[in-house]
Amino acid sequence: MQSSRREVLRVGLSGLAVVSLGSTVPAFLSRMALAEQMPTTQMSRDNILVVVQMSGGNDGLNTVIPFTNDEYYKARPVIGIKDQKLKLNDQFMLNPAMIGFKDLYDQGQLAIINGCGYPSPSRSHFRSMEIWQTAAPEKQETLGWLGHYIDHALRGSQSMLKAVNIGQELPRALVADGMPVPSIQSINDFSFKLDKNSQFDAKMEDQIIRECNAVRNDSPALEYLSRQATNAIIETDNIRKVASNYKSEVRYPKGLGEQLRTIAQLINGNFGTRVFYVQCGGFDTHGNQFGGHGQVLANVTNAIAAFQNDLAEKGLTDKVTTMCFSEFGRRVQQNGSNGTDHGAAGPMFMIGGKVKGGIHADYPSLTDLDGGDLKYTVDFRKVYATILDKWLAADSNAVLGGKFGAIDVL
């Protein structure tokens, strides 16, 4: 293949768009040039965080159920759940569809954090999700809270995969100022995209690397881009090779389970990734909630249970913590369609070998309400601060822009 310098960079950057770029070249160069000049923060641990976003507004009352509270059944005469097969104690039980979480709870690997929310809550899906992803209820913020973490704590890391989103669209939570985060749907997405008449093979790979080396010293920008293209080719090849060696006896359910299996592959490959993000929908239960809500809860909890079993199979249980959240809970009173409308506070979940299992924080009152919604008892940023300080070895004050304290959950 006769490649001009321009063509080499075009092909190289095409692959980098999958592996590391994810933005326009000028913005990429300006951000990366700034990031490389900034001091590096050394991490004391190599722990991994997996974030599962339950989109749509999960109904916390029918997830962690106060089955001894008469107010619960008064507010929900049709959709109130009475099946007590997943009792946690003499006050609370899990939705009967959450068998995977009950198993993890019994193993001491599931922490339930009740009443998570923030002041003056928004009932808008878009705005509330933006608040959770940026950790900024008081203002509009461009960068995500995990993006701040990447900029603050992972500068200087040699891995091109500091964080990875599993899905088509990058969430605001991962938008960083320094390093763009790739979004993939499977391991096969780590490949170079050429035109439809070309095939990328080992011979072409070697030639592109030679051509990239040849363009160095033309200018700082070209030198930087050629170095990144070379690194991307090598990293992509390594990812495919290591992932092809991944094997597991664990059977994952479809949907979220397949996405978590991809995360397990990447964790097993030890590419230096510290944050993984995945989204699942179906929680906007305005009508006929009784059956549908249980199905999406079963999908999430069984997928995460399979993921934990996979980690245990490979001796990685203590290196990974998974956090689940939703942008808001639902109203206490059921609606006329036997569903629930947008609310406020709801539970968060943390799963892992180093998690202090059990029920944490006060369950919100079912009578002292905020316009028909549960009042939050824990600012969700306190959970983020706990993860940053105690799991990711980062300064939560610097990342979140304030001091929020911690929960004794890790």
Instruction: Label the CATH architecture.
Output: 3-Layer(aba) Sandwich
| Topology as a string of helices (H) and strands (E) | HHEEHEHEHHEEHHHEHEEEEHH
Low-confidence stretches: 1-44
The N- and C-terminal alpha carbons lie at a distance of: 55 Å
Return the structural class: alpha/beta
Name the overall outline. globular
The number of helical segments is 12
Query: Strand percentage, roughly?
Result: 5-15%
CATH fold label? Alkaline Phosphatase, subunit A
Radius of gyration: 23 Å
- Quick check: average pLDDT? 84
Count of separate structural domains = 1
- Which bin fits the share of residues in helices? 25-40%
In the CATH scheme, the class would be: Alpha Beta
For the sheet with most strands, the description reads: 9 strands, mixed
Count every beta strand, where a strand is a DSSP E run of 2 or more residues: 11
